[in-house]
Amino acid sequence: MKAKSRPRFDVEVLRERAGAKVFARGEAYCGGGQVDILVIDPRRVLAQVSGTEDYRVELTGQGKHFTGVCSCPAYGDWGFCKHLVATGLVANEAKADEAGGYDAFARIRDHLKQRGVDALVEMIVDMAEHDPALFRKLHTAAALIDADEKTLGARLRKAIDSATRTREFVEYSDASDWADQVNSVLETISGLASGARAGLARELAERALDRIEQAIERIDDSDGHCSALLQSARDIHLTAICELRPEPIQLARDLFAREMQDDYGTFEGAMELYAEPLGESGLAEYRRLATEAWQKLSPSSGRRVEKESAQQEVLGNSDQLMRILDFFAEREGDVDARIALRSKDLSSQWSYLQLAEFCRAHGREEEAVRRAEEGLWLFEDQRPDERLVFFAADILSKSGRKGDAEKHLQRAFEKTPSLHLYARLRQFGGEEIRERAVSFLEAMQAAGERIRWFQPSDLLIRIWMFEKMFDAAWAVVRKHGSSPDLKVELAKASEVTHPNEVLEVYAERVVALVNTGGNSGYAEAAKLVTRMATLRSKREQGDYVLALKARFDRKRNFMKLLG
Q1: Do 370 and 405 contact (CB within 8 A), yes or no?
Q2: Taking CA 53 as the corner, what is the angle to CA 51 and CA 58, rounded to the nearest 5 degrees?
Q3: DSSP letters along 402-417, please?
Q4: Closest CA to 231 of 213, 243, 253
Q5: pLDDT tens digit sequence for 81-102
Q6: Minimal CA–CA distance to 497: which of 463, 479, 472, 531?
């Protein structure tokens, strides 16, 4: 490999991504000979780093633009780790003429090619004796060669049960190994799905699906291993079904039951995925089952009116049923039927919004307006959903009913005032709307009214900030006070116009940050101190910094940042 092809990694970027402490540990690993470079090529560096255990490390890219992954727990918890730092530093030091260090796998391949088949077999068997996972994989693969279906089925059922077993909770650090074992068995089963043993593959795939679903609650599946495994098992099932071509009516019933009982979305949209083996008769049965279950749901809440059996209770998932029936209605181009489906459950403002948006998207403007206004009036005693309010205002304005749009916005503002509602109202007029909103909030403040999620005075300040009227905003602060974060926000917005008020707020914030402690707080405080220097004379700033040093002289890390 030519020297110019070797990737190099910017040391300052390594330091920035890892942090000073982690970078220092990586340097120690680099100097301690704990990094074994396996591959260097223009795209990546692959290494094994010895730590508490041996970890696989990979860096891709070069210069200032690179990413990395490591198999250590610290990478999973915190990101860029000392092993990645060490690998980058060692790669930077590698010499171009050390060809043996650039691709250890190439050397291994050359070595294995020189061995006879018998020697390789013995080597692999010896490894399998000490590696249970490798043994299971090889043992199962060997069984495919000459085992009869009964024996093979028994072995694979046992393999599924063993791989998916969770004797105790599987922690995040062990979840990947658990998933690898399950995936290994699924790979073996997939080899059966498109041949003479497709029936066995179908049975085993269904067993795997059930076992994985049972295991999910006992696994920290933050990385989504189980979802991928369920999809793999479903794909095996689909391949086997396409090979077997079972009786369509019964297939429709089986798939429908699975979709209704599916908590993980594995069989969502099964009628479309399995459309070919279902055929028209199977699809018709699927539709019949969904229609029958849909009719047993109450018109407004999506809950079952009657519960004749445990199976019928499962069929009461209104969202899944609607998706199924919507698939068939869309297939036929029946917009009226699709609107009727969305009209079944109008128990929230959100459901009215979805219906109105659907109507508008399909050219039903008048019905979209009617549904939006209907939702607003029906839930007028509840907190308005701003998304529905904005939709109604937008579509009413475009249809020439700006007065009605403004009324809806005003009504929502008076019920639950917000800056977003004010900003939309402001589009309908000038000072009159502003004065009306300000008067309303001032009356609320004077009456001592409070709404759980906001203070009238804070919204007044935000409105004056929106209008760039900072004198009025600071007047509200002086009269009624303000939340600390909003006061800082106002200060940053009005540095040019109100430097004295801003300096006072920043000084309060600096004290609060330093008293709270912690390096992040010190860093933020130091940045504010630097910002304050632009708002007054050097002498005033110097006196202020000296006073800070006298007050916080025991905060050594903060003193270092002040200089």
Answers
A1: no
A2: 75
A3: HHHHHHHHHHHHHHS-
A4: 213
A5: 999 999 999 999 886 544 434 6
A6: 472
In terms of Cβ atoms closer than 10 Å to its own Cβ (0-12, 13-18, 19+), residue 324 is buried
Q: In what order do the strands lie in the sheet with 35-40?
A: 35-40, 44-50, 54-62, 65-70
**Alpha carbons 208 and 234: distance in angstroms, whole number:** 9
The position carrying tokens 């990478």 is 75
What are the structural domain ranges in the chain? 3-113, 118-244, 495-563
Quote the CA–CA distance of 93 and 151 in Å, as a whole number: 56
How remote is the C-alpha of 360 from its chain's centroid? 30
Residue with tokens 């429908």: 256
> Quick one: which of 77, 74, 83 has its CA closest to 25?
83
The SS3 assignment for 191 reads: coil
User: What is the per-residue pLDDT for 451?
Assistant: 63
Helix, strand, or coil (residue 454):
strand
Each residue's pLDDT tens digit, 175-229: 988 999 999 999 999 989 998 899 999 999 999 999 999 999 999 998 899 999 9
Question: Helix 402-415 crosses helix 419-426 at what angle (to 10 degrees)?
Answer: 160
Going from the C-alpha of 104 to that of each of 111, 348, 512, the distances in angstroms are 11, 62, 56
